[in-house]
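User
Take a look at the entry that follows and flag anything odd:
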Amino acid sequence: MLNSADSELTPHRLAQIFLVPKNSLHRQYEALRAFFVEGLPSTHAAQRFGYTPGSFRLLCHQLRQNPELEFFLSSRRAPRPHSPKDRVREQIVTLRKQNLSIYDISRALKEKGEKRSPVAVSLILKEEGFARLPRRQDDERPHRPGALPAAVADVRQLDLSPRQFRTPFGGLFLFLPFLARLPWKEIAQGAALPGSAMIPAEHALRSLLGLKLFGSRRHSHVMADVFDPGLALFAGLNVIPKRSFLTEYSCRIDPASYPQLMRRWFDAVGRLGLARGVSFDLDFHTIPFHGEDALVEKHYVSKRSRRQKGILAFLAQDADQRVFCYANGQVRKQDQNDEILRFVAFWKEKTGHLPTELIFDSRLTSYANLSRLNQQGIAFMTLRRRSRKLLEAIYATPPSAWRRIELEGVGRAYRTPRILDRRITLPGYEGSLRQLNIIDLGHEEPTLLLTNQLQRAPSQLIERYARRMVIENSIAEGINFFHMDALSSAVAMKVNCDLQLTLMASSLYRLLGSRLGNGYEVAKADHLFRDFVDATAQVTLTEKHLLVRLQKRAHNPLLLAARFEQTRVSIPWLGGKQLRIEFD
């Protein structure tokens, strides 16, 4: 019995299947059959099946030229030749069935001369329906050459048994006579630095300091040195901590610990004989920040002459010793004017007296704070910002009011500037200030020097402020050698931590330079590093001694003159072994 759907398929409706084809191949067949078999005129056949007369004549021409032309698709595709892509695909499938990862498969194909990237292998496996491999154990992975895993840093595994090795960090042992006299445990505990049984706080601090002292090997490259026994021995560990620990450690330090660490380090290096001057150069330095932290403020970056996001650091340098003695990397924009007063309080607390003289730039503080410095009896020099109105008044001054002076203590081309010495008052400043308007000093516009030193000779004031450029050179040294701006390092150091390490390394290099003498008292850290610290040494551990034999170098006679070969100091974190330095 037919259902209702079958009853509707009348002969007329079935005939329409042939007269009104649904696809192009069927329509082409029916049109040609109507013309060649049924004898229908070409114009009528073209009109019935939706062709134009011209296109239908072309279709008939193609059939006459190739009578074997097929108008229906074959039910089975003809076999295709085996392509190289198919062979590679089969190899990939076979290798995956052996439990190989996409990287292993890519490597295996490369050995057979078929280059496929891991991404390409992954796409092919996905098309073939393979899921990702679960994470495998080391014994499940195919054996191949790879990096050797370094031991885990653990002070309890420190090997002090007699042995001998060579190290490219031999010059670091020149700092051990100073470091061995420092109370490391008291410094670390007083600053509440974090530590553990495996890596105590003082060992972690020495590890970071050793990498900072060896400036050419920025701590972002520490993974290349984890096998070096000399660097580890300097810190008192079996191996140097890896970058993951160093990053984590700097993040674990409480920000309140840094002022305490700075104070305790200041006292400790003072007892080692680091001299202290009375005149100081002060400056701000913006460490550029390239992240998306909304709390990071915009500050002026002098080397780029623009304002951008960055960490504002305050630095104070002893002008006589040319060493950083104070640093603060936690300065906020609303507090930056008062940072100079915090330095004065720090110096009074640590030495018992106020700084004698402070030299700084115009953007460092406010006029009200200048008045506070004057009331405390602190001499200062700074620059005044040049406004249009101020410059118009200076240019309107008649030439007869200017006086030419000669500079003697400054090595420069412009040694005979003209000055206009005036007493002025400023809003927020109690009393009068001395303003020296200076031209013919090599600048396009006049230099406006402000000071509360009313009786000092103008030439002495200008010569002293010119020496302030030393701090800018020292900041450049900190950027280039101590890597203060390297926030994109693989070791993501906190700015405060890196700044404090720079402070510590600066004082140690100054102690080394002071002991060497011969002009090295004021030499830059990179100069000392190049001549003395960047040296290979052969280290010999005996039952009672640590013998460091430095390679033959041109500057070794200066180390001999400084009596480094007479070094006889016990190293507390190396089992009390006595350090001896020898030379080839």
Observations:
- The first strand starts at residue 163 and ends at 167.
- The longest helix spans residues 495-516.
- The chain has a mean pLDDT of 84.
- The CA atoms of residues 170 and 514 lie 20 Å apart.
